[in-house]
Q: What sequence folds into this?
């Protein structure tokens, strides 16, 4: 029997879930993240080694936030060395004159220019000569190569990357990580990958010592082999949260709510994501730590508000919660591990949302007196701290619903993470959401989602022939087959052939040796826009663009030409341990106000709410006044 484990490394806790439903929750070890994974495996399995470890990691995200990556050199075309600093004309805070963009990850003296130039269609205007590349500074550890229009024709980039590799340096070329148009975003994404790769490669290599096979969760919500993840760490920045979104969406669908918002409140941050028709919203790009990242991902909105977020009075006397966090070390004051500044967890404990005799994994009984004293010393009340952090989370929920034209009154709120179920009823009341779903194993749900995530490949390509829809469709099918082959190889399949029926959404692989058939699911789409527009919309095919544009923007232009600017393909094979296959958790009905303490999380049922056991072991909370049928 294959022993399969899902693990998620968070800022405060590292969570593990086995295919048999057992869980382990240990304190994270920020100085050596792999140690917490090893500790959790020992607690879960004893001396046994897992056959498959499905892992979500924050190593890359933390390295980017804390600026602890490699010293990177950037190689680009003559005249474009400052593109990474010029950026876009938009400002991060329009009316704040003191707000600046983050410092570029590549210092000015580490930016190098090389000869050669391509036209927008990929044709060569000037020959590229790698010999014109200067000698790099001695402190350079990694190199990012981003040349104009390499998303259409990578030949020049390949020449330069090969020359850099001959010098013994780790090199990332833009066409391998972000083959899409828009030079600034492609450059930043490539630089971030080069910046993170040395640390992530070492970390993931170490993890392979503790399992026969290690699969890593990507921001797009799928698992890839550890070796592949180590080469493209920029795709791991939402590794853990993506798992929670998948499992939260599955719990919502199982309980009759295909339209929902997943709400993951952990120790360091809160992540929310909109799901419609049982599918989490995708995103082609996002901003992480102030940097524009352009790789496929789930559309997760993150704020610095978690159980460990520190509460304080600012210089003007206003109460502020987060984004600074007590993390795992020293942790909230009530953990009795050296923390002195009050946190949201301390406020939850003092307010009675967490039982006074509660014991947390790896910590033991919480110290309510110390938490109360810390709040008093800071001049704060528990109620005030909770009101401020709840307001911030309400705004996050509005950002993925109301601000996108979606009425939250038709959505369920799926609450998980160690702290999510403590705040869910308050947030649902604020937005008049009809139901709260607390999935089974809510406190370790990201690990559950990672365990049940599919093997997946997500590919994107620029399309320079914008008005040739027939050619775009043929190229899209070819990209889908490339994605399917990637998944087949990661599943261990070798020589064989695929039978692809485009309208079925599936490709069937048959090995030459007559082995078992592999069915790969496919999802194909194009990024399209009206000719002359500066933004695009993903649609299944160009013919669907008018309808989708009308749905999103309230109007369409049926007679106006539609441009296709990029092709997208997602191929996946479902997990052998889907979320719904885990043993259910037994729960009994409960009326509010009350607290339900579970091994991995605490649920606060507010006055006026009642909880009933739902499907797949979930709790479904509704107002006692009724309502809540989807």
A:
């Amino acid at each position: 029997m294959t022993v399969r484990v899902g693990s998620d490394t968070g800022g405060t806790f590292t969570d593990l879930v086995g295919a048999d439903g057992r869980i382990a929750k240990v304190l994270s070890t920020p100085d050596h993240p792999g140690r917490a994974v090893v500790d959790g495996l020992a607690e879960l399995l004893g001396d046994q080694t897992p056959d498959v470890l499905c892992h979500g990691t924050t190593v890359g995200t933390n390295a980017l936030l804390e600026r602890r990556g490699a010293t990177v050199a950037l190689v680009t075309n003559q005249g474009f060395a400052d593109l990474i600093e010029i950026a876009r004309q938009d400002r991060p805070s329009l009316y704040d004159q003191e707000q600046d963009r983050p410092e570029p990850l590549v210092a000015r003296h580490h930016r190098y220019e090389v000869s050669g130039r391509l036209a927008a269609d990929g044709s060569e205007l000037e020959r590229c000569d790698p010999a014109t590349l200067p000698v790099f500074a001695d402190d350079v550890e990694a190199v990012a190569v981003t040349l104009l229009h390499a998303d259409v024709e990578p030949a020049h980039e390949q020449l330069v990357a090969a020359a850099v590799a001959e010098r013994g340096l780790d090199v990332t070329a833009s066409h391998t990580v972000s083959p899409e148009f828009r030079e600034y975003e492609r450059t930043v994404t490539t630089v971030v990958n080069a910046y993170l790769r040395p640390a992530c490669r070492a970390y993931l290599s170490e993890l392979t010592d503790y399992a026969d096979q290690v699969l890593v969760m990507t921001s797009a919500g799928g698992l890839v082999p550890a070796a592949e993840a180590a080469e493209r760490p920029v795709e791991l920045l939402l590794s853990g949260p993506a798992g929670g979104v998948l499992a939260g969406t599955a719990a919502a669908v199982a309980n009759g709510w295909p339209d929902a918002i997943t709400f993951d409140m952990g120790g360091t941050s809160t992540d929310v994501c909109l799901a419609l028709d049982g599918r989490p919203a995708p995103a082609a790009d996002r901003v992480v730590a102030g940097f524009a990242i352009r790789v496929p991902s789930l559309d997760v909105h993150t704020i610095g508000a978690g159980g460990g977020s520190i509460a304080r009075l600012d210089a003007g006397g206003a109460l502020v919660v987060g984004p600074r966090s007590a993390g795992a070390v020293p942790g909230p004051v009530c953990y009795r591990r050296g923390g002195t500044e009050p946190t949201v967890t301390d406020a939850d404990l003092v307010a009675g949302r967490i039982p006074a005799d509660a014991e947390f994994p790896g910590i033991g009984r919480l110290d309510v007196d110390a938490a109360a004293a810390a709040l008093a010393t800071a001049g704060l009340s528990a109620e005030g701290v909770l009101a401020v952090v709840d307001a911030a989370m309400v705004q996050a929920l509005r950002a993925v619903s109301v601000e996108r034209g979606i009425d939250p009154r038709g959505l369920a709120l799926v609450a998980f993470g160690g702290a999510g179920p403590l705040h869910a009823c308050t947030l649902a009341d604020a937005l008049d959401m009809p139901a709260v779903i607390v999935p089974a194993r809510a406190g370790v749900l990201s690990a559950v989602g990672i365990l049940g995530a599919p093997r997946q490949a997500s590919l994107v390509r620029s399309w320079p022939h914008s008005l040739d829809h027939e050619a775009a469709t043929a190229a899209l099918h070819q990209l889908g087959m490339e994605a399917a082959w990637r998944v087949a190889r990661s599943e261990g399949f070798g020589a064989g052939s695929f039978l692809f029926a485009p309208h079925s959404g599936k490709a069937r692989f048959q090995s030459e040796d007559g082995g078992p058939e592999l069915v790969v699911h496919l999802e194909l789409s194009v990024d399209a826009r009206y000719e002359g527009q500066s933004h695009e919309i993903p649609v299944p095919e160009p013919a669907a663009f008018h309808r989708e544009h009308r749905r999103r923007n309230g109007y369409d232009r049926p007679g106006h030409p539609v441009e296709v600017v990029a092709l997208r393909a997602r191929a996946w094979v479902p997990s052998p341990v889907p979320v719904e296959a885990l043993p259910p958790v037994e729960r009994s009905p409960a009326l509010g106000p009350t607290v339900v303490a579970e091994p991995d999380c605490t649920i606060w049922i507010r006055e006026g709410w009642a909880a009933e056991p739902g499907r797949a072991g979930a709790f479904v909370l509704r107002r006692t006044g009724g309502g809540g049928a989807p």
In short: Residues 455-573 form one domain. The chain has a mean pLDDT of 92.
